[in-house]
Write a structure and sequence with these properties.
Layout (H helix, E strand, L loop, with lengths): L1 H30 L30 E6 L5 E13 L2 E12 L9 E13 L6 E13 L3 E12 L14 E2 L2 E13 L7 E12 L2 E3 L3 E5 L2 E15 L2 E4 L2 E4 L3 E10 L4 E9 L2 E11 L7
Antiparallel strand pairs: 1-2, 1-17, 2-3, 3-4, 4-5, 5-6, 6-8, 7-10, 8-9, 9-12, 9-13, 10-12, 11-12, 12-15, 13-14, 15-16, 16-17
Length: about 290
């Protein structure tokens, strides 16, 4: 009984931190959308999504990211079972994150996600689409845990791939939609004490502007990178927590991706909201199992 009461009282904090991590993780999945270098590599196969030919898009590749600010976050993404398809590729994406709302001064929410993703380029529009269905989500806080499924789909999400990223260029926007359905349990018990459903969450990225190339300090050394700036609107849509329907105000974020051509990757993202800036840095980019493509 005591654990159930604690779990119920922890629901608001766990939900807030979880939703923050979900949007953060989705944003970082978009961060995995970087360009294939335009020279010195084999051209992509006709009709295939250019992302599938990125040097790091292989089984065993791992990306580690750390963020500061009001939502300190640590995210690790690992690709497994990468396979080529007729119009793109597929892979298993494992995401492990730790995050805590700084204002709550509590222990982090730990979240594991396993997605079976499919990346497909439309031959008519040359737009790349990504889908993940019935991904497994497992999140844990101090007194409660969440378990359930999520799905997402995006159009144009991978449109850094295959584009010429140069100073002064304007890149098209992109859309990202997702849904999540979770049951909430006390830690160490199987009694459901609540649920959370967000069926129409979305991220809409506006037109992006590529700025002047600059040298920045990264964990991997001093790198020459291009700032790509844009506006991002995130919305959870109607959010059901238990028997209540909550309408959370959409947020508007001003984002700068620091794209580093030599690495064909965004090594830093700066997010400005309400005059506060959060910075997310790539702290590790590892490629393994070179023979598996």
């Amino acid at each position: 009984m005591k654990s159930t009461k604690r779990a119920r009282s922890a629901l608001p904090c766990l939900c807030l931190a979880f939703l923050g991590v979900m949007h953060g993780a989705q944003s970082q999945e978009v961060l995995l959308t970087e360009s294939v270098p335009t020279s010195g590599m084999t051209p992509p196969m006709p009709g295939a999504a250019a992302l599938c030919d990125a040097p790091w898009f292989r089984s065993g590749s791992r990306v580690q990211m750390e963020g500061d600010g009001e939502l300190p976050v640590s995210i690790t993404m690992t690709l497994r079972d990468v396979m080529r398809t007729a119009r793109g590729c597929s892979a298993q994406l494992e995401v492990r994150s730790k995050s805590a709302l700084a204002a709550l001064m509590g222990p982090p929410v730990v979240m594991d996600q396993v997605h079976e993703i499919n990346i497909d380029r439309n031959a008519t529009t040359s737009r790349t689409r990504i889908d993940s269905r019935n991904a497994v989500i497992n999140a844990r806080g101090r007194y409660a845990r969440m378990f359930g499924e999520a799905s997402f789909t995006g159009s144009g999400v991978f449109n850094y791939a295959g584009q010429e990223i140069r100073e002064g260029a304007m890149l098209d926007g992109e859309t990202f939609q997702s849904s999540v359905s979770l049951k909430i349990y006390p830690l160490g018990a199987d009694e459901v004490v609540g649920n959370m459903d967000a069926q129409r969450a979305s991220i809409i990225v506006g037109t992006r502007h590529v700025g002047r190339k600059q040298m920045i300090d990264t964990v991997m050394g001093r790198k020459e990178c291009l700032p790509i700036t844009y506006e991002k609107r995130t919305s959870l849509g109607p959010l059901r927590v238990g028997d209540e329907i909550l309408h959370v105000e959409p947020s508007v974020l001003h984002v700068t991706d620091w794209f580093c051509p030599a690495e064909a990757f965004v090594l830093r993202t700066e997010i400005r909201q309400n005059n506060k800036v959060q910075r997310v840095d790539v702290t590790a980019l590892e490629m393994e199992d070179v023979g598996q493509r």
